[in-house]
Amino acid sequence: MTREETPLVRIKHLARILAGPAIPFFTLPLMAAMLVAGTVSQRFIGLYESQKIFFSSAPALVLLGLLTVSLTCKFVFFSPWKAGRFGINLAHLGILVLLAGGFFTALQAKEGSMVIGEKDSAATVQDYRARALGITLNNDIQYVPFYKLKPGSAVPLPGGAAKMEIIAACKSCQIERRQEAGGNLRGMAQFMRLTPGKPALKDEENIAGITFRLSGAGEDRDGEYILFDPMPKPLVIETNGQSLSLLLAKSQRPLPFSLTLEDFQASNHPGTAMARAYHSDIIVKDGAVEWPVRIEMNKPLRYKGYTFFQSSFFKPEGSTKEFTVLAVVQNRAWLFPYIGTGLMALGLLIHIGIVVWRRKKS
Hints:
With 362 residues, this protein is of the alpha+beta class. The protein is built from five helices and 16 strands. Strands 1, 2, 3, 10, 11, 12, 13, 14, 15 and 16 form a ten-stranded antiparallel beta sheet that branches. The protein has a four-stranded antiparallel beta sheet with strand order 4-5-8-9, with no helix packed on it.
């Protein structure tokens, strides 16, 4: 085998191609164009759809991945490792850390919210957008993701007797009043129907819904039903002497620990009803260990890859209990921006120091 054919030579040749100017030359303009298109499109299709299409889509991740690989090859194989280049190389490493953080965040970050009343505890996060059909029988609950509720599909129900078939499903439904309650309509379907509508600019304002046919539950219960989110209360159907509860709502994810709201405090601007500042006094309980923490508007709680931000609050009419609303972000790559920015700042300071020192020396 000649020297040119050795695996090491082939790796260096591939690295030289990846580290060349071709990849940044093509990826950076495309990424800039997607950034502009995504920013402009928010006015017409909303923030969530713009983010999904232009910033979190497969093409965006491929471009970001190619740029990261190119800069990594340039940094590892072709950066001059000299004392005078230490600051620049350190700043280069900071850029790579930022790109890696953005890539991992786009792949695995999840957002949601928690609503906790004073003296209440919670151990689940409600997703902002994803919905699921919750099916409860004898206190046992199972969830079916909304994307599986396709027209013509059958949803397995516990107990085995009743059967559920999806007739229609829409992520952004319009609720229309029925002129006549004909056919075998049951529940709210006797008075209204769901039709596909135009998606709202804010995805959380969309009404997701399904129309389904129930059979095998009994002659007076079989028929066509509707479910939508938000719905005032679950649809309860008595079948075979048992209560079957159906509810379409935001998906929930369990936390590996729980939060208890001990107290909530808010202060208003003088002479107004507008909140100036507010905070939640929380007890974090993880197994047999618990400790207090305060979540404020600019001081979130970070624990086990989760970040809890103070989002808002409310007090139901006629109630003495206040409720806090926490925005929850699960992002295990949250340290990357801090590390990357720190490395870039340190690298530039070192480089400036080296340049100044050399000029004074000369």
